[in-house]
Each structure stands twice: as C-alpha cells, then as structure tokens.
Specification:
- By secondary structure, the chain is mainly beta.
- 9% of the residues lie in helices and 28% in strands.
- It has helices at residues 38-43, 141-148; strands at residues 4-8, 14-18, 27-31, 34-37, 55-57, 62-65, 77-78, 84-89, 92-97, 108-109.
- The strands form four sheets. The chain has a three-stranded antiparallel β-sheet, with no helix packed on it.
- The longest helix is centred in the last third of the chain and has 8 residues, at 141-148.
C-alpha cells in the first residue's frame, strides 16, 4: 500500500496526504523527472517564473525537471512548518518524513527558495503559525520577518 494519496490541498491545488501513519525517517516517495543541464533550465522558457515549475537543483551541473504526470511527488506543497525533507543521492531525489506524520496529514517540505529581489513573486499559502508569507528557505526567513515589522 502506498504511503500517500492525492487529494485537494488546503495549501494549493492538489497535494499528497498520508494514507497511514508515517514514522520519522521513512522514505516516502522519489521525486522523478528528466536530468537536464543547469544551462538548459536557465535558458528554456518552460522554466520562466510565470507558471508552476517542478525543478530541483541536483548539483552545479544538473537539475531535475519534474514536470511530468508520472512524478507524483511534484504535488507536495511548500510549508514554512514542513513534515518532510528532501535528500539527493547521486542523481536521485527522495522525500523523507522529518517527523512522525499522522494519517490524513498533508505532506509538505520547504522548497528552499533563495531570498532575492523577486521573492515576493512567490507568496506562501501554507497558513501555518510561523508562515513567512513567501516561499523562502528557512535560513533566510528572518530577513522577511524583519522587513514586515
């Protein structure tokens, strides 16, 4: 039995939800796609910021284009208080439970976007108590909170 199911998300569009209780450290799903060069991801209009982008940076040379229906992991939404984290091994990317997740809970992880000039183009809809308001990696959220005061 799969550890997750697709449902309408409380965060954005569809999401993945725990189909059963999931223990911390469990490997949940592989983020699948096509390996492309970083140069391709920087020059291809498919990856402009005006639409949903399912792109993971693997290393300095390669990215993973996850914009395929077979990549169910692309439906995991960002949260400022995530219950999952992402680890890469070679050219594979896996989503793991970073804490115990209860059946019915939406799976989420920190998308890890950098704090830069266009951070306001990515509003966060997670609605958690500590939501920064924008999809910015955890280590940079203090900059946003400082600006909002």
């Amino acid at each position: 039995m799969k550890l997750y199911k697709i449902k309408k998300s409380k965060i954005d569009k569809n999401g993945l939800y725990a189909n059963q209780n999931i223990k911390k450290g469990t490997k949940i799903i592989e983020y699948k796609g096509k390996i492309i060069s970083v140069k391709q991801s920087e020059t291809n209009p498919k990856f402009d910021n005006g639409k949903a982008i399912y792109l993971f940076n693997i290393n300095k040379k390669y990215d993973l284009d996850g914009d395929f229906k077979f990549n169910t992991a692309r439906l995991i939404n960002h949260s400022c208080e995530p219950n999952c984290e992402v680890f890469g091994s070679g050219l594979k990317i896996w989503v793991y439970a970073m804490k115990n997740i209860k059946k019915g809970e939406e799976l989420s992880y920190d998308y890890g976007f950098n704090y830069d000039d266009d951070y306001k183009a990515y509003p966060c809809k997670c609605g958690t108590k500590n939501c920064a308001g924008y999809i910015v990696r955890q280590g940079s959220r203090w900059r946003i909170k400082k600006k909002r005061k």
